Amino acid sequence: MEERPITDWLPLTKKEVEKRGWDELDVILISGDAYVDHPSFGTAVIGRIMESEGLKVGIVAQPNWQDDLRDFKKLGKPKYFFGVTAGCMDSMVNHYTANRRLRSNDSYTPGGEAGFRPDYATTVYSNILKEIYPDVPVLIGGIEASLRRVTHYDYWADKLFPSVLVDSKADVLVYGMGEQPLREIIRGVKSGIPLTELTNINQVAFLQPKEAALPVVDSWETVELSSHEDCLVDKIKYAANFKIVEVESNKWQANRIIQQVGDQTLVINPPFKTMDEVEMDRSFDLPYTRLPHPKYRKRGPIPAFEMIKFSVNMHRGCFGGCSFCTISAHQGKFIASRSEKSIMKEVDQITKSPDFKGYISDLGGPSANMYKMRGKDESICARCSSPSCIHPVICSNLDTSHKPLTEIYKKVDAHPGIKKAFVGSGVRYDLLVDDFNKNNSDMNHDEYMEQLITRHVSGRLKVAPEHTSDATLRVMRKPSFKYFRKFKEKYDAISAKHGLKQPLIPYFISSHPGCEEVDMANLAAETKDLGFHLEQVQDFTPTPMTVAEVIYYTGVHPYTLQPIYTAKTKEEKQNQNKYFFWYKAEFKDWIRNRLTKLQRPDLAQRLLGFRNRNQKY
Predict the structure, then answer these.
(1) Annotated binding-site residue? 318
(2) Which of 93, 119, 146, 396 could bond to 175 as cystine, CB 3.0-4.6 Å?
(3) Does the annotation list 384 as a binding residue?
(4) CA 121 to CA 132: how far, in whole Å?
């Protein structure tokens, strides 16, 4: 690891605080992740923003919550507040598989070791702080708090939970990407306003007594959800709530949301408008060391850092609105892009790393190819409340030009310190299929594909059709599988033209709402016909604040309130998952017997062929 002064990192110990000449911290951050000082890790971003606003910040990373709680006391009591995050993942997703089995590793811990954070980490950490320091405000944020900000279904407990503010006893919650509300909060507390009184800032949530008047903000309208107690007894009301939350989360100018929870009112202020280029650059250009804290040196590498240390995140947000995905719920529907200058500055920084060998692992984002995409006429976007810009069709107002992205690829390619720059993020292939995307007026999509395939594929390219059944894909808010076939034809033609053998790696999901067992058999047969032996597959996990989670729990679609089938038992889910692996000997008899029972011998024939006396399959 590069040798540099310990004061280049935000302090993790009392000794490091003293080395900076500080006798008190303004804010102490508690995180479920190890501290990696890199813009891909939320705790580092939050800490560096606070530092840039003149605050003295310390971090307690992965504190022990099972001993005498000394980790929570080691940096003392902050002047303004504690900030709490479970980390870059919801702690329950981090801990458990779709079958609710405990995972054996944790990518955000040195050595990949599991067991360094509790279940429901936000709640556990916040409660400990409230017990030790009852007079110090607690601010919670990060993806776990963000996606649990209202009444939500928890798959692992198999029940509805109220807003995480209730169980955590925290004072304020910041949802979504926190830079904008955080800067406002810091200015407020520095001016002498207590954290608990900063109730008119966008993108925060808090609880107040039921009888108290709502804070007055002239430009905000207020919409009320069904109460938590009503949701507990009426699944339809819970489903209807979700539609309101998703619509408001995706609006250009949203309404304030309130919900009654016991004798309190949950208040969720509207989000900020999506960060512009200047704000994005300001966040990414902070003085990160881009390295894990030196204290982890002897404990082994941090897998999540090793995966991204030579990658560049160029934008945030996703306008796909996939029903199983939390990206738009947390990062927003509208794309926030960095400037070319900021991106190239980061490329320069990467090339100066002592162990950099000339290969960038990813030039990407949540979806690799949404950089700089936005509405052509933003006044139309301002009136829109659709959760997706590309489902069921691509909006005619969406500028899907890949030209800015292609130009960045070329500039990175031309950098003297770069041998190859790969695209490791998943490519949204439907944007590149002209039959689906009618917004390709100057054929720049073809230029992008040529550049991508010939210069930026590291052996294979990731894409995510997710399913082959049109009925299931409609529930997923994904395009028909026929468009994947068209993309594959185009991809194969360009690869053949240049003599390249770089297979497509498609991602698929089993047991998603709307998927029957026969749909999985069809998926297996269709992908077999295309020459795939599937590897990148997963069983559906209902995560908070997604359409698919609501369907799984309630049995109805939150927009139509019509019933939708979902595999729920362990046996149903395992049965669907087995079809991915039709080519494995141990599943062949089972698949043939199942398809016979389902009266689909035609699918058994497609997958396994006919039996005869001398040949089993």
Answers:
(1) yes
(2) 146
(3) no
(4) 17
